[in-house]
Amino acid sequence: MSFTLPTLKPAQLRLLTAIARHGQLQLAAAEVSLTQPAASRMLAEIERGLGAPVFLRQPKGMEPTEIGQIVLRRAQAMLREMRSMAAEVQALREGFGGAVRVGAVTGPAVGYLVPAIRQIKRDSPGAEITVDVAPSRDLLRHLAAGDLDFALARVLPEYDSRDFDIRPMRDEKVALLVREDHPLARAPVVTLTELMDYEWIMQDRGAPIREATLEAFGAVGLAEPRNTVNSPSLLLMIAYLAKSDAVAAMSEEVAQLLTQPPVGAGFAVLRLQRDIRVSPYFLLSLRRRPLLPIAARLMDLVLAQAETGAML
What we know:
Order of helices and strands: HHHEEHEHEHEEHEHEHEHEEH
CATH superfamily of the largest domain: Periplasmic binding protein-like II
Low-confidence stretches: none
Largest sheet: 9 strands, mixed
CATH architecture of the largest domain: 3-Layer(aba) Sandwich
Number of helices: 11
Structural class: alpha/beta
């Protein structure tokens, strides 16, 4: 014959654990804000549903039976889970918990998201934050599919801008990175003509930083560098630069990270006659998708940095 366990309510679970803690019904009733008769009726209802006593009434107080010990162990675990659930829900509603997934092209990922995430984590260590660093085309595809809460990316013509809330951010400055003992590393000024015959490692064709760099060559009447290695991997770029006289074009934020303390990875930024800049990126979110409080907090921190001009 099967036994159907009765469904115990939170108030009943709290009463059981209070009785176990105090050993007296009167003290337990006071803890859970019940009169002693009401607590006695509730305990009788629990034991009736279980078909067995939960506590033995002893001269020195109430002690759990074998069945009572099982029920109490489970009751305590359920109450812990309920308290944890309540705390998580409250944290989520107040913007101090939950999960957020954002995307960014490399420059703003380093310059804006890193400091904003660090601030979130100081206040909300339990927040789960995922960052996708990818080209704008990939980011917009994931954003349109609802996979990202927001993205720092460029607006592309194949997407309907009316689907997004679009907030202006800034353009990107291109830095040309070399190893610190590169022949041109200490030159006061470097021209693109001097860089023509060096080996280059670049992102794939179509990448905004690569296209802006090649346009800079064309603007002064020069052809594209002929000796190139193509890779979207920043890690491969770093490894290649460290072992060659190659030149790599990347966002200024990433170059600063690699050349300044605390990283100081043995690289130098070439000083150009004229800045190379990439078209602006924006902060984009879906119009039809409201953000969770934690995602809204992260977005607000990024926008606040943009307004003040503060970056990593």
